[in-house]
Amino acid sequence: MGAANLTSEQRRVVLTAWGTYACFYLGRLNLSIALPAMTTALSANRAEIGALGTVFFWTYGIGTLVNGELGNIVRPRLLVAAGLLAIILVNVIFSLQTSLLIMAILWGINGVAQSAGWSPLLRVITDHVSAQQRGQISTLFPISFQIGAAVTWVLTGALVAAWGWQAAFLVPGLLLLLPLVHWWRSGIDGRAGQPARFSLATSLGDLRGFAPLLLANALGGFALVGTIFWTPTYVVDTGYVSASATGVVSAMLPLVGIVGMVGSSRLMQHSGRAEVTAMQLLAVGAALMGGALLLPLAGQALVLLLALTALGGLGGMMTSAIPVQFAGAGRTSSTTGIFNGAFNLGGGFAGVASGALLESSGWNAVLLMWATALVLALALIAWFRWQRSTAYEM
Q1: Disulfide engineering: 148 pairs with which of 18, 22, 225, 373, CB 3.0-4.6 Å?
Q2: Which of helix, strand or coil describes residue 230?
Q3: In terms of Cα–Cα distance, which of 65, 76, 329 is closest to 200?
Q4: DSSP 3-state assignment of 363?
Q5: Alpha-carbon dihedral of residues 25, 26, 30, 33, nearest 10 degrees?
Q6: CATH class given for the domain over 2-185+202-393
Q7: Which of 147, 149, 67 is nearest to 111 (CA)?
């Protein structure tokens, strides 16, 4: 933030948006920590519980497309506040349920509510900073969800150990009242300007023009969301820590992702292009995940930790830096929504697919699937760059 030379008002806007989005994760990643306890309590298998993640990421992905467009039209202050309020209600009600069907419906609603955060908040930031500052901040702003994930996993891990899985949803839901009040009282909003209108032709043009990048986002999301969603279960399966310590150990992994984000920011300073940095991170992540297959469990865990470092930086590139780099004038929220939507629609498949493959074939098969997705994403971005360079030469 300091390197971007922000004024005191700009710093207030960025830090408020940063903290607000980090808090969104209290009502989102709590499910990951509660999964093992829920599986036992509800007598469900991992594929059935994983379906909750799939429903969430699909509705979140669709929601980002809608809220990305709304973020250009409706005041971001209202969208973010409405999203937080809905998340609070869903989490409190979810804690009282025992039916997987009702839980899936509620968690799907949560996905839509969660989608009211990222794109509108990025619009708020880009409306208050210069183009040069925007490029620097966009690579580091995703650290907010790494911090949010770490805090969520520590808190919910302790809650599950002390009072059961229900507390992992009830307590965070109530705690979210604090950031909701703070956000509303801050008065922060997007800049007033020429009223934007939804343009189907423009949105379809973005989908066609960015198709390879959007497919790459979906594949990258499949691998990254899969690791985030199933890492707590992996920690339990290794047997190195007790179930009560899972939250603390898992919370260290987002902090590793922060290292990847800072590293990706440095890489982007050298390349000057977000998609080039994404290709570098995809190559490293795929190589490490593929290499982990050759190692015993202890060595595999260490290599997977290094892969998560690269994937942490990748998430920031694909959901923030790349869409901000390619967004047209007045299209930051919309373009970010499209890219984030693709990322999370792809990630939604990881919930059920990874859980089902884990049940049938074990962790090596899951790691191979994630590594393959990363390789395909790398190939798609390379193709996109080749298309752009060919069109430029012609």
Answers
A1: 22
A2: helix
A3: 65
A4: helix
A5: 90
A6: mainly alpha
A7: 67
Closest CA to 21 of 143, 135, 168: 143
Comparing 57-66, 105-114, 242-251, 274-283, the range with the smallest average pLDDT is: 242-251
User: Tokens 């590793």, residue?
Assistant: 256
Place of tokens 């309590």: 41
Q: Residue 123's CB: how many other CB atoms inside 10 A?
A: 26
* Per-residue buried b or exposed e for 158-185, using 16+ beta carbons within 10 Å of the residue's own CB: bbbbeeebbbbbbbbbeebeebbeebee
Buried b (16+ CB within 10 A) or exposed e, 300-328: beebbebbbbbbbbbbbbbbbbbbbbbbe
**DSSP states of 29-82 as a string?**
THHHHHHHHHHHHTT--HHHHHHHHHHHHHHHHHHHHHHHHHHHHS-HHHHHHH
Q: How far apart are CA 67 and CA 283, in angstroms?
A: 32
Q: Give CA 385 to chain center in angstroms.
A: 24
Closest to 190 in 3D by CA, of 52, 76, 319? 76
Q: Could you state, in order of their start, the residue ranges of all structural domains in the chain?
A: 2-185+202-393
228: alpha, beta or left, given left = phi > 0 and alpha = psi -120 to 50? alpha
Biggest alpha carbon–alpha carbon distance for the chain: 65
pLDDT tens per residue, range 251-266: 666 677 777 777 777 7
**In one letter, which amino acid is 116?**
A
CB 315 within 8 A of CB 224: yes
How many helices (H) and strands (E) the chain has is answered by 18, 0
Mark residue 197 as left, alpha or beta (left: phi above 0; alpha: psi -120 to 50; beta: remaining).
beta
- Name the amino acid, one letter, at 94: F
* Residue 114: how many other CB atoms lie within 10 Å: 28
Report in angstroms the alpha-carbon separations of 304 from 146, 290, 331, 356, 363.
17, 10, 36, 20, 11
Supply angle C-alpha 23, 117, 123, rounded to 5: 125
Residue in 251, 233, 259 with CA at minimum distance from that of residue 350: 233
- Residue 145, judged by CB atoms within 10 A of its CB (0-12, 13-18, 19+), counts as buried
Q: Name the residue with tokens 């994937």.
A: 311
Which residue in the block uniquely carries the two structure tokens 């509660």? 34
33-80 confidence digits (pLDDT tens): 888 888 888 888 777 777 887 788 889 878 887 877 787 778 889 999
